## 1
Amino acid sequence: MKKMFLAMAAMAALCLFSACGDETSSDPTRGELCQGGLSFDCLADGTWKLDGATEFTEIAPGDTFVTISKDHNFKATPATLHFEANGKFTFTYPPQSAMLATCYEAKTSGTWSVSGKILTLKTTVGNTCFYPKTWTKEVLVTKNGGNIELDLKGIFFLNSEMENATDTEKATTTEVFYISAQ
């Protein structure tokens, strides 16, 4: 009887350990979540980075030069945009941008939603310099190497820093956030 009990205990332990060994992470990667483009799942619970304002300069028809604005380059310490699954966001400037912005607020928060390819951002805290305070626009989500990029196709969070820019500069500048595809 004792041998039978020990044998059953050994079998139960073996089953328990083998069940644990078979577990694999079934959580999808950010790349998989963003595979179809913009979606709630693509953005939710993600902290996206921003190196600064991205400027597009057309050198010749069909030939564009892309660079981060030298006046608003955060590559050393990127700004961050965190989308919470409860529909709230927090945007945080890097510390060095305090000297660059015409109206500096370290954190801005608000709400976000997605409808098709349209992203809506509404600031609720830290929005004295943000115009418009509610922003709705079609955005672009693409894979670029090991990152997923979220191109706002315009200026929202860096709007106060572009206050003195020309209309041409504003029209050719965008915010491109990125997050690891893993």
## 2
Amino acid sequence: MASLNKVLLIGNLTKDPELRYTPSGTAVANLRIAVNRKFKDRTGELKEDTCFVTVTAWDKQAENCNQYLQKGRSVLVEGILQSRSWDTPDGQKRSAIDVRAERIQFLGGRPEGAGSGDRAASQPVEGAADDAVRPEDIAWEE
């Protein structure tokens, strides 16, 4: 039996990324994005629905998201659905389905301060393949 777990989302961050590190030192960032959908209801009236999704980025991608993204920025996320479950302190079972990011594309143009004239922003950032990545090398979509 064939199966496929692939997610493509375009949305806006509802808050700044939350970066933390695992005990072994691996970076992990949670992004909360809002994805809007417009549709017509049975009466033909145009409606809009918003879905809020938690996206988890790991390693250098997490650090890059923390450094270059902030609330309101648009992103394209390519990833997989991932379920998790836990018990609350009072013993109730909880579960959630999130997106584990495989690739995050920053949309909406280059933010202020990300140009080559900004000293801090022009410092190299290590990429996933150990290549130096600079903000001016990131593909900022308009």
## 3
Amino acid sequence: MSAELIVNGVRLIADPSGALIWPDAATIAVADLHLEKGSAYAQKGTLLPPYDSRATLNSLAAIIEREQPRRVICLGDSFHDLGAAQRIDPSDAARLAGLTNAVEWIWVLGNHDPAPPRGAPWTGRIETSLTLSALTFRHEAEPQGGASEISGHFHPKTAIRTRARRVTGRCFVSDGRRLILPAFGAYAGGFDALDPAISGLFRRGFQAYLIGWTTVRAFPRDSLSPI
């Protein structure tokens, strides 16, 4: 079960996949795919199963198939580094190309991918930031950013305590004025939403929309536990 939230007066849906759905604009936004992170680590001697890109694309294809959007926005760090396009398996590259050719696809540049990959078979428009109606999409939240900002970059994650156990997971973070998306990539990891780097962007408090196996539930800042 997903969770509804409002940002700058716009109704949005926080999906358990980690995607943000904007129903009235037939738009999906995802952040921090970090495609080919596994192969980047392998080059440095840290061997991980080399299937992270495929797993991420499987999840992305599933949400696109389910929601049938007209537009997909990737909020930066879609590729782990500038060599990802050369390392990605040809079948995964072809699948990504098929996805980008099926809808209006927008790549917002991030700090890991500050330039578009060269020689890639996929398509899509490239932007440093993008304003659509009442929302502005960018990779990293601006410290003085006002209402309307949708971003990624921080890979927010949080924890809550119940009577039985402690639950930890990725989360969306919002105060109704701005929203930070969780990382969508299979190997992207997470960063504590209570860390000042994130919480400091929400001076008046925030809600964390914690992702479970099949649900997203909202929790106020004061109910969260440090990771």
